[in-house]
Amino acid sequence: MNFQFIIIFILSLIIFFISLISLKVFIRFVAHTGFIDTPDHRSNHSIITPSSAGIPVFIAIALSSMFLSPEIFHNYTTTAFGIFLIFLLGAYDDLKDIRARYKVIIIALVTVLSCWDGIIIMNAGTYFGYTIPLTWLAIPLTLFSVLGFTNALNLIDGVDGLAGTISIIILGSLWSIGYQNNDLFLMGLPILIIPALLAFLIYNWYPAKIFMGDSGSLTLGFVISLLSIKALEYVNPIVMLFLIAIPVIDTFVIISRRRMYGQSIFHPDKNHAHHVLYNYFKGNVKMTVIVIALLQLVYTILGMTLVKIMPQAVTLPFFLLTVVAWYFVLTRLCDNHPELMRKRSLRKKGAFFQSDQSKKVKI
Asked: How much is the average pLDDT of 96-115?
């Protein structure tokens, strides 16, 4: 057992340094490639910054998996190819900007490929000793889940260090589930990705020297969603809701708020949890990231411990209660938010909200 952890530690160190070197080289030459982020009205940075860190990070992960742990994808070759396609989609989107509908179509098609490898939601969980099969709803629900979480992680990538930190916490819990159940795929991918993300955070922690970009957030969101579906073979879906709580809850709350104020759910704004807390902490990026990361950690601990032993009749209501609390707390914190106050004023006058023109609309 100890020997196994020594091997994992050595493997993680190798991946960490490969990623660190790849990122350093990429940052040095990225200005000549076009993978840069220019500040706009929704940005929290004021200077042109290298972007698309997902390119060196996932190239490092791919090389590491090929030479160090090729057996991880032994039964998941189609899924590995699908992850590669999502990576190419994200990289191209960073360079050219792809319309949201095309990204949805491509991610959906790639998700179907993963279903062939058995990564599919076959049931809605076991409650009171009875398993609820999904039958013909299995593929549609799998598509909805992958698209939803991929977009959710993409949306929280709004302040330095946040998406990477949240992803590390989630991947750590997924690795734990894989380790407890001796699932190589569920253990292997987090072992490959977490060290690479730690290297990324060195350059992405405030003030960031490089951003993740869609090459990173789309690929990472897609991979985590597939691992979460795989983990459903061993845990109840309610447990998984806790393990991926922050991206899911933030997306649900922001969509609910947009509908409340008469906007399209795709309308870009600065009312996400990280925007609200950034405003509340008076522009303190590090405090914003730490608080949100601690909240995700609390959800993770609850999911891995308390929720597993709670009566099934109260687990889902308990999670929904935290969602409602999250909604009202954020709404209260928004009371002095200038943009939200302006929308409330317009709503009272019966005005229609027009979507702002932004450089990029997330899917």
From this structure: 91
